[in-house]
Design a protein that fits this description.
single chain; 605 residues; alpha+beta; Penicillin-binding protein 2a (Domain 2); Beta-lactamase; 2 domains; five-stranded mixed sheet
Amino acid sequence: MNRKNRLVTGLLVVAGILLAKLFYIQIINDKYKRDASNNSLVYNYIFPPRGVIYDRNGEILVGNEVCYDITVTPRDVMPFDTLALAGALGVEADFIRERMAYYRQYRTRIGYQTLSFLKHIPQENYIRFVEEAYRFPGFRAEVRSVRQYPFNAGGNLLGYISEVDADFIKEHPDYRSGDYVGKTGLEAAMEQELRGVKGFHIYLRDSRNRVQSPYMDGAEDKEAEPGKDIVSTIDAHLQQYGQRLMEGKVGSVVAIEPSTGEILAMVSSPGIDVDVLSDIGKHYAEIAKNPRKPMFNRTVMASYPPGSVFKLINGLIGLQEGVLKPENSYPCNSGFPYGNNRKLGCHGHASPLNLLSAIATSCNGYFCYVLRNILDNKAYKSTKEAFDAWREYVLSFGFGHKLGSDFPSELGGNIPTSDYYDRMYGQGRWRFQTIISLSIGQGEIGATPLQIANLAATMANRGFYYIPHIVKESEGVEIDPKFKERQYTKVDTKHFETAVQGMYMAVNGGGSAGGTAFSARIPGLDVCGKTGTAQNPHGKDNSVFICFAPKDNPRIAVAAYVENAGFGATWALPVASLMLEKYLTGEISPERKYLEDRLMTTRFF
């Protein structure tokens, strides 16, 4: 084939490809045709109801109710009677005039967009407008759903939804003006499942911009798809009870089912009442100005010194490292002396003590000896190397990093590094006495209430935990497989029985010394607990308590943290133990009613 014939053949092939493509575009696929005529199409969107959120027992925590909105497409608006529209909608005529002036000013920017005009109008106004809608071209009534909260439980954990703004739309192009999105809590964590898929009806617009017949007789219309329902791990009644106990107090209470890692209750106090969630915008400024920060979810965002509950970890590390035996006894004469006539103080109790009695009485002095033995362990070349090993143990308990919960905004707390102390004191210039406060859960240690509750669950399980989570697997909703995997600590499970026995003695007595948690004793439940009093540089000490029950085959683990409340046994203990009793028995025994009455009637603010 000569050059001329090859050229002709090539041109014919190219022409054939172009003709085939043109035929496909014009005859077979009308996408481009439809895109070219978009200015003549009107999309009437149908908003799907968001999925319902249930508690673990089928109680509706978040449902939906119908609301009525008015939208406007400024380019479609024809001259109308302003007073008549104001009367139909139940608004002032000046409001309508101001809105229309705004649309005229920004008509180029607005183009053919449909905008929100009025939200949540009363049903009678909606009915009146619908009857007269033919008089107001460009205005349209829309029926959509808003969140409803039939059960007053967990404003902070449920979270709220709000209308998307321009910045959000830029980052999430599948949303448009007028859409709502979960901003906090479960609403945010499960946004993709809860939101559903919008539907729409498409109508043709004539040359005068008047809406005419359905496009392609409705063949291209799309039905809305409701959001998926979510089953949470929360027990609504326990959550509500915890909120009542924490009223007037600042802090948190978290309850976990140890055998699954499912979060049974997650109370942050003060918190957001569910009554304001459905219209958060109306109340946002007031809530944001509250000095006690009710929108701040302390359960996962506050970093506190864990205090004496942390002694359990130090004791377990000592056992694992072989530098402590349960029968080892150490003296405590009102504290542990160190340095230049310095002493880390302790309350009065019997002395000397072994490990079980030290846990039961929460002896500071004893655990100073324990941490000293860990850091002076001759198996390591230096204090720094021993400290690094200690830190790895602590991290394995879920401290110093995010647990990986499915709840948004979780923080990781803090477990200091040896490099941090090198920078602070100089390399090789720090030792046990420098960081002695770590022995009792103070100093640079920071933990969230969720991490502290996870410690209670780890003790209940004798050495492992499931990552705490707040969504249950249900029809159409799967949970991450990681939530079903055991997370083992670096301490052998055989050592936990000793520590658990010390927790049992703290509540139920036994040994040579009385326990600090005797008020948590509940006949027939075999409660195990550990008190904590965490020093607070900004005021009174923080009150801490963890517990679980029953001792064998535990069903619930609880951690309570009450800011500026003093001893752990005074305030955090009754909160946590009452939550435990309520969950396991459904009621508070008569002999413990005084604790409930004291909490219900005491307000710190």
